[in-house]
């Protein structure tokens, strides 16, 4: 029998042919030295292979791959590979992975999430979202005195964009200090706090200090944030709630289990002589 993709077939179909239980009423499409290959195995193999190929393979070619795969598996057993300790260990680990993956998937699918729970999660997330977004420009300077001098120039009628191009040390300087539209949480806190307190068209009266330097800010515009609706967020929220419930379930298993940890405790790198953890350095 001619075969063209047997290496690909071997890699993919091992799990489809050997790990699939064969029911008596399944349709048989081939028998290799007494071992049947079912229509379901062929269909599963075709589905996997054709998703990863630019051009689809036909059932006859796919079946040839499965036949060659089965022959290779049979020969591997004849040669005693299934009796080797290293192979047995790999099979054991693969079995664990299959068992865990199947259990996790089916356990998660069985978890019920009510519409009320989804609505509560949605309300909580939306509460933490910014209600407004801002469009601003800034001029970034190295010292407070330089920033105050720029504010004075602006108060005297200087053009903000022109000064930003001439004096700003930030990457937005060549664009006139334009930061585009942004939400407050995407900016460092002192900058965000200053912007939120300003009115449209206003320039900051005092320099704003951040870890980047001293900012002179101009608020150009402000608009309400368009928040996603509940229906749009529902699939994402459901997945999040299922995950939370799954984690809680695992924690309950851990709490009720008899677990003995034999690993010796190790001291952290910053522990003192008395074994207590050293005080962390405060952020500036």
Provide the helix percentage. 40-55%
Strand line-up in the sheet with most strands: 4-3-6-5
End-to-end Cα distance, whole Å, is: 74 Å
Q: Could you describe the largest sheet, including whether it forms a barrel?
A: 4 strands, antiparallel
User: How many DSSP helices?
Assistant: 9
CATH class term of the largest domain? Alpha Beta
- Shape type: elongated
* Rg measurement, Å: 32 Å
Tally of strands: 6
What does this entry look like structurally?
- This protein has 284 residues and is of the alpha+beta class.
- It has three domains: 6-83, no CATH class; 85-129 and 229-256, no CATH class; 132-224, Chitinase A, domain 3, CATH 3.10.50.40.
- The protein has nine helices and six strands.
- The protein has helices at 6-17, 39-51, 59-78, 85-110, 115-127, 144-155, 160-167, 189-196, 230-256; strands at 28-32, 35-38, 132-141, 178-182, 208-210, 213-224.
- The strands form two sheets. It has a four-stranded antiparallel β-sheet, sandwiched between helices.
- Strand 1 and strand 2 form a beta hairpin.
- It is elongated and about 95 Å long.
- Residues 6-13, 15-21 and 272-284 have low confidence and may be disordered.
